[in-house]
What we know:
Layout: E1 5-7, E2 13-15, E3 34-39, H1 56-66, E4 71-76, E5 89-95, E6 100-106, E7 126-127, E8 132-136, H2 143-159, E9 164-167, E10 179-182, E11 186-188, H3 193-203, E12 213-216, H4 221-236, E13 246-249, E14 256-260, E15 265-268, E16 270-278, E17 287-294
Parallel strand pairs: 3-4, 8-9
Antiparallel strand pairs: 1-2, 3-5, 4-9, 5-6, 6-7, 8-10, 10-11, 11-12, 13-14, 14-15, 16-17
Amino acid sequence: MSTAEKIGENGATEALCSDVCVEPLAGSAKQESVYVLFEWPGGWSHDILDGGTFTPELTARLKDKLDGQAGLQLIRRPGRAGRQVGSVHRCYLVWAEHGEMEMLLLEGPEDILNLDLSGPGRNGGGELDTPLVLVCTHSKRDKCCAIKGRPLAAQLGEIFPAIVWETSHTKGHRFAPSVLLMPWGYSFGRLNLEAAREMTKRALNGSYFYPANRGRGLYSQRGQVAELEVARRLIEAGEDLGYADLRPTDAGSGPVRVTHRDGRHWDIELVQREYDGIVASCGKEPKSSLIWEVA
């Protein structure tokens, strides 16, 4: 049996898209700059804004509110504790561009409609100085997120109980376990417990973790790949690197310039390469895709 197959309850083989590791991680991060992380222990439908998680009327209003302003992630604590519904819900507002995050207590999802998402410090929330680690466990989106995400969230949550959450779809379940790191908006994939523990430990100091890093969602795919390339070079040269130290500028063609906060810069040449056999989701047929990588 190939590594892309598992035995299901009925005895038939079931393919797991996240076992097909034919493409690089770099450049695959979820692209977003502002996030609303809302605590919702109840069931998550296939798409949290498809009318199955909240009422169709509220869903339509949330879509209008968030469109072009922010991405919504539903979160809950790992394990049984995360399934308990309280009278208030924690809501974290993240501005990845600023590397800032605030926490509010809301009575329900309809309170999201009243938030001012135009910038930090406008909703009366308390500013946080610790990161959040969001592990995708959205099983109705893809079973890989349950099979691989839930165990990692539970184990990591025992080590860092205050900052680890389960979350809804983070884009890229084929990279499960898939993780978002806030407030910087970095995505990670194919994390085992050892790597996830080290990433979280370093994040407490804002220290850059390169292994399994998919990129920062502020940037284009090309920008993500270029930034990760410079990060790799600096870390391998023994430099200390923080999550806000590098910034790529992507003109859409030609080299991507990556600038360090100290003024140094690098021009990174990129090419597109075709990768075959990519399985985007469990049950899907393999396909080919053009992916940016360092020349």
